[in-house]
């Protein structure tokens, strides 16, 4: 009886015994060791996969995630941004070494009114020309990029429409070359909500906090022009709001760059 019991115990299946491995002649203790090794390897592989997945998601950048908080929770900034590369027309001013004279306030904002139509005009209510860009822009990534781009000037002009309905700001940045200008405009296509132009202060008009506005960036040789436009009441544009004409009028400040092209290359033939 004792011998039979010992025989049954000898063939009693272990918790770590698998039929296939037993058929291969592997003892239960070795099967247990194999399972432990496989489990540890699986955990390590899973951890490696998790790390790879985390890396693939990219790094967290507080500047980009919460850049709008720089000016407060109700920061006025555009909800839409579009960017355009520099046309060949501005090739004569693609390098600042060939266009070394600094911008002047009169040169950029000499016109007090910009015509939108026969009845509608944009009136200049504030202007400022800064040496460098740190006073005219906000956002760590943006400030770092314009610093690397050799920004030496930022000219800002704030406009109010004659009917009291619209507000616009034009900002002209003086960078070192055309490549820097193009790269800045391209970057702003995705990063503009983490860094943008500071609005000029005026008692006559202001961008409404949290209101809707649109913006555009234009590479102009070694310059970058930033157009920022919205309704005074902060509402989205309706069928009667001609933002195309308003934008073209606001870009009247770019005449300063056109005049520099002509001064270098001569009038077009």
Strand runs, count: 9
N-to-C series of helices and strands: HHHHEHEEEHEEHEEEHH
Shape: globular
How much of the polypeptide forms β-strand, as a percent range?
A: 15-25%
Helix content: 25-40%
* Tally of DSSP helical segments: 9
Widest β-sheet, arrangement of strands = 1-8-9-6-5-3-2
Unreliable sequence segments: 7-16, 47-70
Strand count, sense and barrel status of the largest sheet are: 7 strands, mixed
Radius of gyration: 32 Å
Structural class based on helices, strands and sheet pairing: alpha+beta
- In whole angstroms, how far apart are the ends? 118 Å
How many domains, in number, for the residues?
2
Average pLDDT reading:
82
Task: Give a written overview of the molecule.
With 269 residues, the protein is of the alpha+beta class. It folds into 2 domains: 48 residues, no CATH class; 200 residues, no CATH class. It has 9 helices and 9 strands. The strands form 2 sheets. Strands 1-8-9-6-5-3-2 form a 7-stranded mixed β-sheet. A hairpin with a 4-residue loop joins strand 5 and strand 6. The radius of gyration is 32 Å and the shape is globular. About 13% of the residues have low confidence.
Secondary-structure map:
Layout: H1 2-10, H2 19-23, H3 28-56, H4 62-65, E1 80-84, H5 105-109, E2 113-115, E3 121-131, E4 137-138, H6 140-148, E5 153-161, E6 166-174, H7 178-191, E7 196-197, E8 213-220, E9 223-231, H8 243-250, H9 255-265
Parallel strand pairs: 1-8
Antiparallel strand pairs: 2-3, 3-5, 4-7, 5-6, 6-9, 8-9
Helix pairs in contact: 6-7
């Amino acid at each position: 009886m004792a011998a039979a019991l010992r025989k049954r115990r000898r063939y009693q299946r272990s918790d770590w015994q698998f039929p296939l491995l037993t058929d291969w002649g592997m003892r239960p203790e070795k099967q247990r060791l194999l399972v432990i090794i496989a489990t540890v390897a699986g955990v390590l592989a899973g951890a490696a996969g998790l790390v790879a997945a985390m890396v693939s998601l990219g790094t967290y950048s507080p500047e980009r995630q919460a850049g709008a908080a720089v000016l407060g929770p109700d920061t006025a900034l555009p909800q839409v941004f579009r960017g355009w590369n520099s046309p060949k027309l501005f090739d004569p001013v693609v390098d600042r070494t060939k266009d070394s004279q600094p911008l002047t306030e009169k040169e950029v904002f000499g016109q007090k009114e910009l015509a939108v139509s026969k009845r509608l005009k944009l009136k200049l209510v504030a202007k400022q020309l800064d040496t460098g860009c740190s006073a005219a822009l906000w956002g760590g990534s943006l400030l770092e990029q314009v610093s690397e781009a050799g920004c030496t000037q930022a000219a800002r002009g704030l406009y109010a429409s004659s009917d009291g309905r619209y507000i616009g700001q034009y900002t002209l940045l003086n960078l070192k070359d055309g490549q820097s200008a193009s790269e800045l405009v391209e970057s702003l296509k995705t990063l503009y909500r983490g860094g943008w132009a500071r609005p000029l202060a005026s008692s006559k008009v202001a961008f409404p906090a949290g209101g809707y506005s649109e913006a555009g960036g234009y590479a102009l040789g070694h310059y970058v022009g930033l157009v920022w436009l919205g309704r005074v009441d902060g509402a989205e544009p309706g069928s009667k709001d001609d933002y195309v004409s308003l934008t073209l009028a606001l870009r009247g400040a770019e005449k300063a760059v056109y005049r520099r092209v002509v001064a270098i290359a001569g009038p077009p033939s």
